[in-house]
Structures are given as structure tokens and as C-alpha cells.
Amino acid sequence: MRQFGTTIFAEMSALAVRTGAVNLGQGFPDTDGPPEMLAAAAEALRSGQNQYPPGPGIPALRAAVAAHQRRFWGLEYDPDGEVVVTAGATEAVAAAILALCEPGDEVVCFEPYYDSYAAAIALAGAVRRPVTLRPASGGRYAFDPDALRAAFGPRTRLVLLNSPHNPTGKVFTPAELALIAELCQGHDAYAVTDEVYEHLVFTDASAPHVPLATLPGMRERTLRISSAGKTFSCTGWKVGWASGPARLVSALLRVKQFLTFVNAAPLQPAVAVALGLPDEYFAGFRAGLQARRDQLVEGLNDAGFDVLATEGTYFVTADVTPLGGGDGVEFCRSLPQRCGVVAVPTQVFYDDAEAGRRLVRFAFCKRPEVLSEAVTRLRRLA
Ligand code: PMP
Ligand code: GLN
């Protein structure tokens, strides 16, 4: 694992603390989640729910996960056998890859990719086959369909898909999902979907979020992953889950029992409460983030960045070329000194570093006054 060094998130958050810069690097909200959820967690702590919960998660949370997927996506999962609670989406992704891959198997993924993917694939002794997302028409990211076709082969074990996508803010379109589903079935591969931003697709996105598991023939071969961290602004809780056909979920659970065994007993009933909140919570959460996206995008445009479209997630990416920065890593290292803001270089999420060399990512999951201060500082670059 030596090649993986320290994650960029830890490096950039440390830089923000050291320099007193506004941290738009690591994606975490600076407000707490819904009060009903916080109250339920406090109550669970006080009422003695502090010992090991059941291996797959407490029944109330598994039932809430299943009900939530039925409500929003029309997907049916049996809470007993088709849902497992994990230590965040991160553990679910790692356990899924470890469960499904033999050494030498290939994992098709899209770059830039969330940084834990490469590490989890390496831990399994598997090989990643990245397909590159590049800025295309309308400032939206796209991939070459032939590159995706070429990435699939006889050793393909699974495709790992993150949509809505971190760091680009891309929402995969129905046509793109259809091609992924076709190739997946044609190669008899599994799909592992990371949908932690499932509720963060903005109203002006070119497509709504569509879980890959809802496409014909996909539910039976897909492990669908999400987590509470983003939807309920509790990234430090690390409560996630995976759903899928029983044989895939039990394979994942076999790995999970030796990674963490179980997790977060008193937080599980609280997340169950949050998943049952009315539709207005989810719509209000999205609308709030969309307004903050607009606030940051306007500031970045004023500062002179070449800002790319973002249709979902916590993030927006921008090309630093107009600001005289040819290299995103150097740009991000000097940004605190230049104007007191921290961002993350997108380059580190690419195997093909050249493809992401000039791109940086800013997080807008911050209070309006924090974004306003960041924007004031960034405008000094203009
Ligand atoms: N996947 C993606 C795409 C993410 O952005 C993140 C960061 N929240 C995770 C997984 C990790 O989620 P968790 O904190 O629930 O492990
Ligand atoms: N998901 C968050 C991000 O992309 C933070 C992840 C982390 O710190 N590991 O910024």
C-alpha cells in the first residue's frame, strides 16, 4: 500500500488548519443534520444501545433502508437478507470489491474516481481499468463509448459506478447507463454502484438520477451502495449500507464481518429515523445545496476560473488555466497563500494525470456566510 501515501483530503484539510484558510477541499458540511435524527441518536446513547448490534445491522435500519429505496426509486429489497449496514459507503465499496474479485480480475471504473476505489481494488489484488471522463459540450463531462467498450474484456469482474459523480458533479445520462448495463450483461459482470449523492441532483440537471439497478437485467447483478453521511450531513458517523440480491449481499457480509464486524450501534436507529423523514426534507436539502452551488459558481466565474457544469453532489470543478495555473496540484498548494482558500486538485483522482492536470475541485457544502467569505477571497485572484 506504500504507493497510496496520505489521502489528498487529509493533506488539504491539514493545510487549511495550518494556514487558517477557508476549507473548500474535503467535502463535509459545516452544519448538523436533521434535529429528529440527532435527538434519536442521543436517546439511543442514553437508553443503553451501546453494545454490538447484529451483524447485518439493526432490523429497524434495514427496514428503513428498504422502505427508502422503494419510496424514491421503486426498488424492492428484502430487509432480511438483501440489505446490510456498513461503516460508511467506504467500507461497503471495499467489502464488495474484496468479496467479488479474485486477484487479477479487472474492475472497470471511471476516472477521476473517488480515492478509496484504487486502494480497495489494490487490496483485492484486482486491476483497475479506468475510462476517462473529460469536459465535453456544455462544460459537461462525458466519456468515449468506444473507450468503455474497450475497457471490458474476458477478465472483467465488475463495473464500479459512482453517479452522481465525485469529483465532477456529473450525473450519468440514461443513454450512458444503458451502455454500461449492456456491456455489464454482455460480459456477465457485476455492478457496484456508489450512490452516496442520490439526493443531490439539481433541478437544472440534464437528467434525473437513475439507479443502475433499476435498468432491465441489472438488479440481479448489482450491489447498490449509499450512506447517511451526505444526505443527512453527518459524514463523521460513517453509517452506510449495501443492497442487492441475497447471494451478493451475503458475500459482502462475509467480508464485512472481518473488517469491522459491526458498527455504530446508537447511530443506526437515528439513521432509520432520518431515512423516514418526509419528502420535503430531501427536497429542501437539495434546494439548499443548489443555492450554495450557484453562489460559489458565480464567485469562481468572477475570479476568472473556467468553471465546468455541476449537476449534483457537493462539488464543482474548474480549469485553472485562465489564472495562469498550468498544474492543479501546484495551484492548490499555493492557493492558501495567494488568497486564503483550500481546494483539491482533481489530477490525483486520475490514472491519466494529464487529463486532469489543470482541474481543481471546490466543495460548496458550507454555510452561505462561509462561501461568501471564500468568494470574497477568491475574487482577489482576478
Ligand atoms: N463515495 C463517494 C463518491 C464519496 O464522495 C464519499 C465521501 N463521502 C464516500 C464514498 C464515502 O462515504 P462514507 O463517508 O459514507 O464512507
Ligand atoms: N467524500 C469527501 C470528499 O470527497 C471526503 C472524503 C474523505 O475525507 N475521505 O471530499
TrEMBL record:
SUPFAM superfamilies: PLP-dependent transferases. GO terms for cellular component: cytoplasm. The keyword Ribonucleoprotein does not apply. It holds the Pfam family Aminotran_1_2. GO terms for molecular function: kynurenine-oxoglutarate transaminase activity; pyridoxal phosphate binding. Signal peptide: none annotated. Its cofactor is pyridoxal 5'-phosphate. Keywords: Aminotransferase, Pyridoxal phosphate, Transferase. Residues 22-378 form the Aminotransferase class I/classII large domain. It comes from the Bacteria. Belongs to the class-I pyridoxal-phosphate-dependent aminotransferase family. PANTHER family: FI04487P. This is Succinyldiaminopimelate aminotransferase apoenzyme. It comes from Micromonospora avicenniae.
